[in-house]
Amino acid sequence: xxxxxxxxxxxxxxxxxxxxxxxxxxxxxxxxxxxxxxxxxxxxxxxxxxxxxxxxxxxxxxxxxxxxxxxxxxxxxxxxxxxxxxxxxxxxxxxxxxxxxxxxxxxxxxxxxxxxxxxxxxxxxxxxxxxxxxxxxxxxxxxxxxx
Length: 147
Hints:
Layout: E1 6-7, H1 11-17, E2 30-35, E3 40-44, E4 47-52, E5 57-62, H2 65-72, H3 75-82, H4 84-92, E6 101-105, E7 120-124, H5 125-143
């Protein structure tokens, strides 16, 4: 597991960032890792879960922290969960995160932005994660059939 693929926001920042994600089953699960894109791994009694802010889902990825460490030691997992290729390019090109920031999409893909390096920027962590939660929740409501 490469430490440069993760950030360490404060507990308060994580709590504020997750306010707009309460519509997903994250209650009772403790955030244990935050990627530089603001995605999060949670630990619960039922295993380790991944909040994907790009897709707007939370899914169980393994059962223990040891399994998670083994998983994140693979190139495939670094790319899938941490977008390692974008991170490496951003750092190589001088886009270095400051405290309290994460990488984010200039125009989020949920509203038509492209998943490409040209659409990546640094942004305040709380703002980026909070906005993504709002966008996904709104999209879910818009896609739901009316009663």
